[in-house]
Amino acid sequence: MLRVRTVLHATDLSESSGAAFRLACTLAQDYGARLLVLHVEPPPVAVATMESAVLLDAGGQEDLMKQLRALGAHDPGLDVEYRLEQGDPATEILRVAKDSKCDVVVVGTHGRKGLGRLLLGSVAELVVRAAPCPVVTVKPMLHKAEPLGRKGERRGAPVRQEIAEAAVCGAVVR
User: What's the pTM value of the predicted model, to 2 decimals?
Assistant: First the structure.
């Protein structure tokens, strides 16, 4: 049986990552595990001209941390740690998963196809291929999930039922 002590949820803070966050909370709750919520901000871009150099910051770290904390787990008793890192998203997610000895990683996908996927790449795909632990990927759900009860239950269904339902909606477990 898989022993889960730490669940890593990597988020890009988009609305589509909400389903993955809810599933990560449910897993952590069901296993009594710590939930590590991570956002990786790409490094600032420097623009230089002959007269000056300007550092373009994609967003203030304080604002990003506020957004992370605003996610808020549905169970106030859940042990949640929020982390903000800077760098290549896939590389940093893999590093944090390894350094924090995560037992499972939960990431959302955007479901891009064709040229969009080719141009933008897929952080989730890179994480699935190289993660040191199992990875659950969750597509954006078409409906809003119901709030979960205590110990990861949704109307009496344990987290395994939640995973089964997520699989029907597009989650993939490696």
Answer: 0.72
